[in-house]
Amino acid sequence: xxxxxxxxxxxxxxxxxxxxxxxxxxxxxxxxxxxxxxxxxxxxxxxxxxxxxxxxxxxxxxxxxxxxxxxxxxxxxxxxxxxxxxxxxxxxxxxxxxxxxxxxxxxxxxxxxxxxxxxxxxxxxxxxxxxxxxxxxxxxxxxxxxxxxxxxxxxxxxxxxxxxxxxxxxxxxxxxxxxxxxxxxxxxxxxxxxxxxxxxxxxxxxxxxxxxxxxxxxxxxxxxxxxxxxxxxxxxxxxxxxxxxxxxxxxxxxxxxxxxxxxxxxxxxxxxxxxxxxxxxxx
Amino acid sequence: xxxxxxxxxxxxxxxxxxxxxxxxxxxxxxxxxxxxxxxxxxxxxxxxxxxxxxxxxxxxxxxxxxxxxxxxxxxxxxxxxxxxxxxxxxxxxxxxxxxxxxxxxxxxxxxxxxxxxxxxxxxxxxxxxxxxxxxxxxxxxxxxxxxxxxxxxxxxxxxxxxxxxxxxxxxxxxxxxxxxxxxxxxxxxxxxxxxxxxxxxxxxxxxxxxxxxxxxxxxxxxxxxxxxxxxxxxxxxxxxxxxxxxxxx
Lengths: 283, 249
Known about the structure:
By secondary structure, chain A is mainly alpha-helical. Chain A has helices at residues 3-14, 18-51, 63-76, 78-110, 112-125, 134-141, 145-169, 173-181, 186-224, 229-238, 242-270. Chain A folds into 2 domains: 3-51; 63-277, MetI-like (MetI-like fold, Orthogonal Bundle). By secondary structure, chain B is mainly alpha-helical. In chain B, 81% of the residues lie in helices and 0% in strands. Chain B has helices at 2-23, 35-47, 50-82, 84-97, 106-113, 117-141, 145-153, 158-195, 201-211, 214-242. The longest helix of chain B has 38 residues, at 158-195. The radius of gyration of chain B is 23 Å and the shape is elongated.
């Protein structure tokens, strides 16, 4: 370090105080503004485009009209019922897939017969567009909640199974050997060594399954009708009520955002002991 | 050969159980027509051209939507990683668009572009752009800074570095993102065609089901499922080739 550089370093340290704090604050403000700038611009563009009559209100209802519609849905109670039903179906399907997927994945990695039976089914079934089986599910189970939850499980269980199998395969042999060496029983080994070590990848599988559950829940509701956000959007679009269609998108988008954020939070909580919790979060 | 046979034996067993369940009347044959009838219906549809006509329009939609999303998503993702201002502008939009269940856009694409190909291509494009963009972004951002610096110091122009260093570095993650997009494109295609369409696989499934010819409906469902599976396998084989150079490192 030259003498000059050393001096600047020192001066910098001496003004370490109020000005720097202000500077940091200003920087944070600018950064925060930049972060929401494009979203605000997008929303403003939506409103302006809609009001400028470039598009008909059918093609693009104004943002203010859409928000008003959401508000009136909320007041009449429809929003609460539809949201609750969609959430209930998506979450029920997700939970069944999570429990079932982890169980099947564990069985596959511990039992040769289970592996022999499920492996080809998973490797062929995972990349298939299982949503195509929706009409078959309707044929078997009708159009009510059982059918909707079933098609969600059919779609969402595969990523969980695959992630569990890969996760357990990836557990370091040394960990298992040392636990065995110290006299861990099968049960202890599973609960205290294998599952925690496999948890990060299993969580990744669950994080794939969650948005998938919601996508399929919406499609199932659109196709089978009845209450729920997807069904409400379909009814609105049949009556050419595009304001309600856009309102539906905003509502479903908000639910999707909340669920995905919740999964991230749960992941951070569960994996707080894991090195990745300290790593900077990626987008 | 025997190994493959033993490996895929469970699938064969399932097929046999299916056939028996239908033939022996364990379940009603409307709910589950015998597999042999399904195969016969499939052959019939193949010869009268119905299957080919509808698969052509479905494939056209997938190729159109997925192709657009790959080109535009790659450009967006890499620009976001390479130019800070682009990132500041686009990252928040990607972040709020990412968790939207894309199937919610089906009615809107219909409002904008009608019942034909346009609305399906737009839907697939919008849905698939997200995983491609994120893959390209993560890949390009992770490209080794040391490599970029060395290339720069050896006199490569910025664009040259982008093309010769950042792009290959971003490949694995980008190709992974495209694989996700490929699977998503089939899901979106079939859902949108089931809900509103006048041709395509989803339409065919819906109209056959409504007409009560369940053996033909099963045939189309299995065809779509198989095509999705085959597309993934073919894609994987191509990716392995493309990334063969990485095996050296």
